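Quick illustration, no need to memorize.
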Amino acid sequence: MTDDPLSDDLSNLGLECSEDWVPFPVTGTDTGTGTGDADPTMDPAVHLDLDYWAKYQAEELAERYARDGEKADVRALTRDLKRAAADSRTRNPLAAFGWYVSGHNAVAAIMELDAIHPDDTVPDVSLAWLTEHMAVREFGEPDVRRLRLPLGDAVRIRQNFVGEKKRLLGPRPVIRSLFYGVRPEGMRTAITLTLSWTEPILDEPTERMGDDIAGTLSV
């Protein structure tokens, strides 16, 4: 175990998921024009053309939809990809993905991978601490379970909460969430995986995928 939690090696942090989960760009400043003609002197790890990325990814999704015998609205997908990726970027996760179901032009669920390092305020990011600080009770008690994942001991929290308004005069949506907090062996840092969606019909398949994906977490 290292004395400095920031020295915990997360360079190989990752997970396994199907191609239905589109990886979002989470690093770099959006300095693009939507043309893809970025300044060649700019470091691509620092500078990002989010408009161009969304257009390119929408075309890739359209090809995948076509292989599945479904049609795609590329313009609608482009708008949704940019919106979803931009929203994830506001939370600064280490990685983020959107679940795009063939034939649908809006993201079905968001998945974000992150890490919580202990500090002077929280010297031990324990499973009890994660449960206390990640659980919400806007719709009653969340479903909290302790489990053992290949990466380490974990807590699984399934809950619903009220999200932010999408429109000025519209209602606040109910966000359905599945959270995993994992303490890898030999590390003081906690790894978190969060899936969120809004459609109740997606509860079962999203939870099933979440459980499968959480089992692939590795460092």
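The longest strand covers residues 152-162.
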